Structure formats: C-alpha cells, structure tokens
Amino acid sequence: MTETNQATELFQFVRELPKAELHLHLEGSLEAQMMLELAERNQIDLAYDSVEEIQAAYDYSCLQDFLDLYYQGMSVLQTPDDFRDLAAAYMKRAAEDGVRHAEVFFDPQAHVSRGLAFEDVADGLIEGLMAGAEETGTSWGLIMCFLRDRSEEEAFEVFTTAWPYFDNGRISGVGLDSAEIGNPPEKFERVFAAARDQGLYLCAHAGEEGPAQSVADTLDLLQVHRIDHGIAAVNDPALVDRLADNGIPLTVCPLSNVRLRCVENMKEHPLKRLYEAGVCVTINSDDPAYFGGYVAENYVAAATALDLRKSDLAALALNSIGAANLDESRRLILLKDLAALASNI
Ligand code: ADE
Ligand code: ZN
Fold first, then answer.
1. Does the C-beta of 31 come closer than 6 Å to ligand 1?
2. In angstroms, rounded to a whole number, what is the distance separating the alpha carbons of residues 37 and 81?
3. Quick check: CB of 287 below 6 Å from ligand 1?
4. What is the pLDDT of residues 40-80, one digit of tens each?
C-alpha cells in the first residue's frame, strides 16, 4: 500500500470505530465559515473578512493566546438560534467521525457577561443537541464549565441560575476551564462541593499548562470523576500510579496540546506513556475549529506520531465509552458495536 492509501485507510478505520467524545467545547467548534455567517446575521463587526484571514490568526504561543481569540470569536453568538445552529453542526460533524456519544462543554459566564440570558444560551444549545441527536443517533451530555479566571462568587451565581437545568437533567455536570496558571483548584472547592451535593458529574481541566501537582490538587480538592487534559501527570510516577490504580480517566486532546505548545511536537506527546502505564486515556478534540482537527484527526495524528496500532486505537475508543457518563443500557450498545468492529482487526 502507498503511504497515501495507508493514511486514508487508517482515517477510515478510525472513523468507523464507535467512540465517545468527552472533551469538546461547543464554542470551540465554531468554524470560521459559521463565524462569518453569524457576524453578518447579527451585524457584528469582525476584524476578519474571510475564512483564510481568520485561520491565519490561529497561531498560538500559549493557552492564553488561544483563549483571547476564543472569547473574541464567540461574540458572534447572540441568539438562541445561533447556539442551536452551533450545537447541531457539531453533532453532525462528530457523527461523521464515529462519535456515538458526545459529552460537551459550554462556558455560560462568557455569554452572560456579554449581556446574554443564561436561558437563551442553554436552551439554544440543548435544542441543537437534541436536533443533532435526532438526526444522527448520537447521544449527548451537557457540562457547564466555570471560568477559573473569574471569581468564586461569579461561579456560585451561574451555578444558582443553572439550577432548573440540573433538576431536569439537561445539564448533567460541571467542569472548570480557562486560564490554568494562577487559578488553582482551591478557588473552586466550595462550588464543586455544592455541585457534588447536587449529584452532578464533576470534571476539571488540570495539568494542561499547569504541573502534575495541579492534577493531584484537583483530585484531592475538587474530587472530580475525571481530569480534562492531565498530561502533566506523566512527570510524577506516583500520580500516574494513582490515576491508573483508581481508573481515573484523562480526556487528552493531542492536536490542542501541540497547537498550544503544551507539548513540543506530537512525537513527544505523553499520551502513549500514560496509556502504557495503564491510565484510562481517551482521545478528544477540545476546540476543533481552532486547532485544525475533529476527533478522528486527533486519533490519526497520535497514532501516526506515536506508532499506535489499530488494536491500541480500539482500546482508546473502549476507554472513551467506559469513561463516559452514560446510562448502562446505552453503554452496552456502544460496547457491543465496538466489540463487533474490533473482532475484525
Ligand atoms: N476553554 C476552551 N478550550 C480550553 C482549553 N484547552 N483549556 C482551557 N480552557 C479552555
Ligand atoms: Zn478543554
């Protein structure tokens, strides 16, 4: 087989793997084309006139560089219809990559602080997720993130506003994102305790730009079910053992980590070392519109650079289904479909 044919075959194989995507910011799936269309629809002045101009700006030296563009980009999202279109487009695109269950984040504070109503954002997203699920058969869960560079008080405010959505199950969990350095998990200990009391699913970004200690502190203080990113854990063997022994999943995002220079290049990515140490590693796309690849492209990029075999990729897809916050009947369906495909490897 030629190299091109091999790459195409690998991509096809990855797309057919039934999988869950567990680390995806809906606002980070805002494609340049949609950004332009929404800017026109809502009469918003963008600093860019074309898809090419927007994409040319996507050159980051660190997480904060990206966050600046990410918060700026989402200013085109104004109405419930905009949020619905965004979520529906993601569901459709994810299904093309074999995503059968998607656990997706949104950042309500980034919208409420621009004067939007929480309900307009959440209702629009939920409508889009439901429409996408109807069209593709992909199930979903919605996780509300607190912005860690804002105050604890603001986190509690948005938590209180979201209460009806926890009650009706439309928002199933809380997460923690934005600038990691200088915003340690202890700042959000009390709001995570309140979310735990409410029976919500808990996750938090840690060890993306921050050190291994940030992962350990997040586990100790926030008592999360999983860690988003967590790649810095590789620097602490005791922490790696802790993650492996306790089956704590990591939602790793290879293309994001390279684009944000959290790792030097894909060959240096710690994903394989963590996986081989027995950690429940999963592969995800984070902010695909900003990092140049949806979930299948993340699998392929990691597989190519790190010499992962098809059986490893199936094991990583299995991790994603096992780590999903999913009802057991749905999990069983996905596991059976994956087993059927994996038996032919
Ligand atoms: N918000 C969106 N993407 C993020 C990332 N990779 N890290 C922290 N916050 C984010
Ligand atoms: Zn993220």
1. no
2. 13
3. yes
4. 999 999 999 999 999 999 999 999 999 999 999 999 999 99
Active-site residue identified among 31, 208, 209, 297: 208
237-264 residue pLDDT tens? 999 999 999 999 999 999 999 999 999 9
Can you tell me whether residue 204 is helix, strand or coil? strand
Tokens of 199: 């029976």
* Ligand lying closest to the C-alpha of residue 29: 1
Helices (H), 162-281: 163-167, 189-197, 212-222, 237-245, 254-259, 271-276
Return the HEC string of 53-82. HHHHCCCCCCHHHHHHHHHHHHHHCCCHHH
27 lines ligand 1 (CB under 6 A): no
Residue to probe by mutation, ligand 1, list 29, 143, 177, most atoms within 8 Å of CB: 177
Q: Which two tokens stand for residue 256?
A: 């994001």
Q: From the CA of 249, how far away is ligand 2's center (Å)?
A: 14
- 152 residue type, one letter: E
Contact 274, 231 (CB under 8 A): yes
What gap in Å lies between CA 173 and CA 195, rounded to an integer?
8
Nearest ligand (C-alpha, residue 259):
1
| Domain map (residue ranges) of the chain | 3-31+63-71+81-342
**Would you say the CB of residue 178 lies under 6 angstroms from ligand 1?**
yes
Cα of 80 from ligand 1 centre, angstroms: 23
Per CATH, the number for 3-31+63-71+81-342 is 3.20.20.140
Q: From ligand 2's centre to the CA of 144, what distance in Å? A: 12
- Each residue of 199-246: pLDDT tens digit? 999 999 999 999 999 999 999 999 999 999 999 999 999 999 999 999
Is 27 in the active site?
no
pTM for this prediction: 0.98
Residue 257: CA count within 13 A, CB half-sphere:
31
